[in-house]
Amino acid sequence: MRDSLAVVRATWHELRRDRFLLRVLVSTTVAVLVGLMAWKLVGKARSPGQRPRVRPFVIGARLVAVLCVQYIVASWLYARWTGERDKRARHLWQRLARRLPAFLCCAAILGWLDYATTTSTASGLIRAGASFAFGYALSYAVPAAAVYRSGMLHAFRWSYEAFRKTFGADLLAWSGVWLVTGFVALATAIPEAFDLYSPGTAPRGDSSFVARLVGWGAIVPISLIALALSAGFCTVIFFALTRNQAPSSYPKSAVETVSGLQLDDN
Predict the structure, then answer these.
(1) pLDDT in tens, 13-40
(2) CB 3.0-4.6 Å disulfide test: which of 53, 191, 247, 265 passes with 81?
(3) Rounded to an integer, what is the distance from CA 31 to the centroid of its chain?
């Protein structure tokens, strides 16, 4: 666990000192907050019966933003570690645009599964498990798509190959990324538990809207940072697989623990 947390801490330092990634996280946070406020204000005109129907679209839009942020973080970090930042960054937005249709499809699937889990039937439990499994696979496939510059179908194959090659790593070696993803799940469950994603306003009026705004202002950036850390963690593993080295700013022993590989010296 100590080595896993060391990789997470090193990833946090990488994110914090990179101005481009900070701008991406801040701009995404602002865009999500503006979108949520607009959604609440526009939703006043909708009837209560229409609100559950549009909830999957809100979840899907949030997921598209998450996938885009993870792709940008993975692509940028890998380019910087390999010394190809200028070359790769020049075409970063073009590659992201080509991945958008696949991200939209993945977000639509997860949004539908999320909507299906609101039922209390046995099929709802199965879909909840499918939603978790698909989301977990995406957390590795998106960085793989950025590292190998491939489509999502090939990225799932690269993720499987990475899992097979690093299967010998101790299960506790993944505890750092599990803590990060678990924290994200907890943080994103808070607005859903208080129905903050539903359009319209609660009967309490302005005070309720202010409370929602404060909640969003804390939860959205925390969730995005945690997801960026998760993407960076997975990118470290793909870097170790492709280069047989640890990134220069990471402790070699910690990366060897989380990847289960014997790495060369930098």
Answers:
(1) 888 888 888 888 888 878 777 776 666 6
(2) 247
(3) 16
Question: Helix, strand, or coil here: 233?
Answer: helix
What is the distance between the alpha carbons of residues 146 and 72, in angstroms, rounded to a whole number? Answer: 8
The 3-state secondary structure of 20-53 reads: HHHHHHHHHHHHHHHHHHHHHHHHHHCCHHHHHH
Interatomic CA distance for residues 266 and 264, integer angstroms: 6
**CA 193 to CA 197: how far, in whole Å?**
9
What confidence tens digit (pLDDT) does each residue in 33-88 have?
A: 777 666 666 655 555 555 555 566 667 777 888 899 899 999 999 988 988 777 66
168 phi, psi to nearest 5 deg: -75, -10
Q: Burial letters for 118-156: b for 16+ Cβ neighbours within 10 Å, e otherwise?
A: eeeeeeeeebbeebeeebebbbbbbbbbbbebbebeebb
Per-residue pLDDT, averaged over 162-167, amounts to 77
Mean pLDDT, residues 246-260 taken together: 87
Tokens of 242: 């492709």
Nearest to 29 by CA among 75, 69, 74, 89: 69
Give the pTM: 0.78
Exposure string over 188-225, b if 16+ CB within 10 A, otherwise e = beebeeeebbbbbeeeeeeeeeeebeeebeebbbebbb
Q: Which has the closest alpha carbon to 37: 197, 190, 205, 225?
A: 197
Measured between alpha carbons, how far is 7 from 58 in angstroms, rounded to an integer? 33
Enter the DSSP assignment of 196.
Answer: -
Asked whether the CA dihedral 203, 205, 211, 215 is positive or negative, the reply is: positive
